[in-house]
Amino acid sequence: MNQPDKQRGLILVYTGDGKGKTTAALGLAVRATGRGKRVLMIQFIKSPDRTYGEKILFDKIGIEMHQKGIGFTWLKTPEEHREALKSAWAFTKEKVMSGAYDVVILDELNNALAINSFPIDDVLPLHEVLELIEGRPYGMHMVITGRNAQQAIIDRADLVTEMNPVKHYYDEGIPAVLGIEF
Amino acid sequence: MNQPDKQRGLILVYTGDGKGKTTAALGLAVRATGRGKRVLMIQFIKSPDRTYGEKILFDKIGIEMHQKGIGFTWLKTPEEHREALKSAWAFTKEKVMSGAYDVVILDELNNALAINSFPIDDVLPLHEVLELIEGRPYGMHMVITGRNAQQAIIDRADLVTEMNPVKHYYDEGIPAVLGIEF
């Protein structure tokens, strides 16, 4: 549905191996919310069983965020992950097409699409992702994060930033820091 | 003041020419605030005369943010910029050493330190920046953003991410988008 009075929504991709991809998406959610936009963030890998600082604050200020993953792949069976992805993807399609949002963030969708330790193509097909991107409501901005972005997604994006790690304190033996990384 | 019961604060740097540096710092502010940390963001280039979506929301939720710049260099005289940097730097030193914050974000400080179109070394001396980093309260995390990070700052950082532009819609003639970039 083309609405000439409305600016076409953009596709933004944050990819690369460095820190800051999800964090930048959070910042974008805050900026857009400040401008009165209706923002939705769906997380494909993170699980609702863990606590995240951003979720605590988003709940408080009313930014809608759903953690649809079950944590990292090595802690669960492939079948558990497949089920979670299937559910996350059905949920995403419905939400995107509902017309209820101006900005939708699909956090770590790239990681999910790059899973190759078990088959995902029947529960999260790339061609459906591309169809959803193309067919989203006209003015909707979409932000897709995660390592190893598919070339087909990069091709369709308006903005792609690659976060490259120059230095990381993990290398010095400092573990993930509360309030900084989660 | 060394407090052995407290984890040493980290220095995080977001640099590079790509989009997402300030945005990632905003996300980090949100995450840290969600964890009950006291966050301060000081912006070195952005001016309080313009409106930013993030500022609107931060004011609402009580994250302290100060825009101490006067906008981009080509719109003002060198003397106006020098005065603004002088004031921003004095303000920063006082705030950092006050002990009132767990996380301090110095947004676009790298850009300010890389100005070479007029002399800045007497109002924003690199050696003082390095001294402040080293001498900050023990548990304080510091986030420094902006292009062209000085090597001396990278050397002292615990985490450095370089945001690289892969693709940008400016190149297709689309101007800055409300709610996405400001």
UniProtKB/TrEMBL annotation, chains A, B:
Signal peptide: none annotated. Pfam families: CobA_CobO_BtuR. This is Cob(I)alamin adenosyltransferase. One of its GO terms (molecular function) is corrinoid adenosyltransferase activity. One of its GO terms (biological process) is cobalamin biosynthetic process. It comes from Aneurinibacillus danicus. Keywords: Transferase.
